[in-house]
Amino acid sequence: MTDHASSTIPGPIDPPRRLLMGPGPVDAYPGVLRAMSAPLVGQYDPFMTATMTETQELYRGVWGTTNDATLLIDGTSRAGIEAAILSLIRPGDRVLVPIFGRFGHLLAEISERAMAEVHTIETEWGQVFTPSAIEEAIVRVKPTLLALVQGDTSTTMLQPLDEIGEICARHGVLFYSDATASLGGNPFEADAWGLDAATAGLQKCLGGPSGSAPITLSDRAVEVISARKKVEAGIREPGDPSSPDFVRSNYFDLGMILDYWGPRRLNHHTEATSMLYAARECARLLLLEGRDAVIARHRRVGAAMLAGVEAMGLQVFGDVSHKMSNVVAVYIPEGVPGDVARAAMLEDFGIEIGTSFGPLHGKVWRIGTMGYNARPDAVLQTLVALEAVLRRFGAAVPSGAGVDAASDALAGS
Ligand SMILES: *Cc1c(COP(=O)(O)O)cnc(C)c1O
To answer: Which protein residue's CA is at the shortest distance from atom 12 of ligand 1?
Structure first.
């Protein structure tokens, strides 16, 4: 064994203080960080199983569902996406993905990996789909599954879902949505909107760290998943690898994960205990404040940020009437070096705002107000810093206009 000279061993972790006002991840609620430092217990400790059960019930409240199959997938948000798609889709099944931003492309890519026959429809970035455009594509493609992002942080758009479940039910299509960016900050009603599967992550409006993916599955989705399993001696087996029913992942095999979270607690993986505590606390805090109250807070604080950037003379990207309440994209003013200005926000003010992807790269910044950071003081601090940085780079920003407009919006709402 080599001995490291103590001078080469880094000190304990000591991150800088940041205010994370990008499109996620955001600062966690202090209580969530405290929950994560709670002592560990064994996997079959009665406390552990009781905490899993409690967390399932809390997330039924978050999702707006009575689904038994409401649980966590260990991993970041895309772990939830992979689990849902790999388990619901068999090779050759048709999947329809309406794409209105980067995460639609991700759903299509993961469906390709699940060996689905993937069909996409696209709309311009900054727009959403009408229910009739989606229905028309469903009639044409006849998919097994519709995979639709609710809120795409890449464009800030919020796809209305409330009429889509009824359309899917009428055409016998399973309805899945990725609600990672939107859940907790915008309405989501898994049961009332007829969702068969929905997944999320903690690092946006739920105010936790990334690393746990809440998921909820309708009884119909559970039937599809269960039908893929051979049951031997009461235990579901992965079955024949040459069969289309074989799920090409162990970690994301929802049939096995459901047995683990179900009453029999059949061991699958070692549940990520500290992330379970974090996810439980995110949901507990949300329900304690009240789901509608948290959504209203995101709406109020997001409207203040929007009023602030508009009053500064910044042009907002996309169809604002379909914007998520918790993120806004603004065009970088002419002549301002986007990355240098963003770095100045971070270095001089400790505030992170987001860059952009694809067609918007280098053109817009994305500013989020999510979870713990959906707060008036976080909005006002960000606007003060943004004004100072923009003026430094020569942009003609009216002095104090952003803060005044945001303050007025907060006072008026
Ligand atoms: C942010 C975001 C994700 C993030 O996925 P991770 O695996 O947690 O990085 C997924 N989907 C959507 C719609 C998002 O906005």
So the answer is: 180
